[in-house]
Design brief:
alpha/beta, Rossmann fold, six-stranded mixed beta sheet, three-stranded parallel beta sheet
């Protein structure tokens, strides 16, 4: 199992899973932060974003994630002030420039994005901003690994750990997991060669009967990780139980703001405690994120659920497994793929066609 949506897309885009012998199966874990953000929190974001005098800021991926009946794009179309930012510090600048507005940043993600989000709160306090808050949905990788490996339905025999998460946190948390469950864990990068190297290291351990933690991404990852980033996380956040979309509650699997930073907590600032939505019964994203099923096992995949009309976040997110399978033609029959391939070979070379032979069948950028 790879624990990163970026690795999932590299695997599917380059057909790595199809090049492997049948004895090796790759399954896709809960490594997409957009995909695991719970529906309840998305509905809270929609409620806050629709209020007057609010500027709601977010990374672009979150705007199309479906809540109950709408998404952030719909809120913006109805007149809400919803803005895409590339850094939470941009949201802080917006708060400085708009003192008469309440600015909310949707702080989602794994350990990779959490330090910058924490720093935005530190900076907002230093600037004395009273109109900045964060809607926090941060989750952590190791508790999710425990949840997957401890499940009676677990199929995972080895992990490709996410290199960018380990660049921040190191991999000192992983040896006890490998020892407890008897599974190898290999810290892996994102290029096709990185992924192939991670798979090879994992298979070698399995064949030798070993279960250790290896670092196959030494150019970016150290055992101890980024100590200053970890310190700012500890300063601003505290460990909390977290709901994961499609999976449920995982104890001590996320972060929330410490009491001394409660004034920047958007959930406290806005009364959104009574929102309790229901997931679509057709979406099997939770089983996909646990490695129990693949996107093409879903009866709605490519039919009721497409990038144009997604039922779940795994089809919306640029890192989602369903979006990867759809974008790279896993929803097409062999005849359709052959026709597309023939068209690609005979068509004039253009940047759009050259980037992917099935680009014209997908609305994703």
């Amino acid at each position: 199992m790879e624990i990163c949506g970026g690795q999932t897309h590299a695997i599917v885009r380059h057909g790595i899973d199809q090049l492997l012998p049948p004895q090796i199966e790759l399954v896709h874990g809960p490594g997409c932060p957009v995909c695991v953000t719970p529906l309840e929190l998305i509905d809270k974001a929609l409620d806050i974003a629709a209020r007057p005098n609010v500027i709601f800021t977010s990374y672009g991926d979150m705007l199309r994630v479906p809540g109950t009946g709408r998404d952030l794009f719909s809120v913006r179309a109805a007149g809400g002030d919803v803005r895409v930012v590339y850094s939470p510090l941009d949201a802080v600048k917006i708060a400085q420039a708009n003192p008469d507005k309440q600015v909310v940043f949707f702080a989602i993600g794994f350990e990779t994005t959490a330090p910058a989000n924490a720093m935005s709160v530190v900076q907002a306090r230093a600037l004395g901003l009273k109109n900045y808050s964060v809607l926090v949905s941060h989750v952590c990788v190791p508790p999710a690994m425990h949840a997957i490996l401890g499940s009676p339905h677990n199929r995972v025999q080895g992990f490709l750990a996410a290199g960018h998460v380990c660049a921040v946190m190191g991999y000192w948390e992983y040896p006890p997991i490998a020892a407890q469950y008897g599974v190898p864990i290999v810290v892996t990068g994102f290029e096709p060669l990185d992924v192939a190297q991670g798979i090879l290291a994992t298979v070698r351990q399995l064949e030798a009967g070993r279960h250790e933690v290896e670092n196959a991404y030494g150019r970016a990852v150290t055992f101890e990780g980024n100590i200053p980033a970890q310190r700012v996380l500890e300063q601003v956040f505290e460990v909390r139980d977290r709901q994961w979309r499609g999976i449920g509650l995982i104890p001590a699997s996320g972060w929330g703001l410490r009491a001394e930073y409660a004034e920047f907590d958007a959930e406290r600032r806005w009364d959104v405690s009574d929102i309790h939505p229901q997931e679509s019964p057709l979406c099997i994203a939770g089983q996909i994120l646990q490695g129990l099923k693949k996107p093409h096992d879903c009866p709605a995949f490519g039919i009721q659920c497409t990038p144009e009309s997604p039922l779940g976040a795994t089809m919306v997110s640029s890192e989602g497994a369903c979006a990867a399978y759809y974008r790279y033609g896993r929803h097409l029959s062999s005849d359709e793929l052959r026709v597309t391939s023939d068209e690609f070979r005979t068509a004039p070379h253009s940047p759009t066609l050259h980037s992917s032979p099935v680009t014209r069948h997908s609305s994703l950028p």
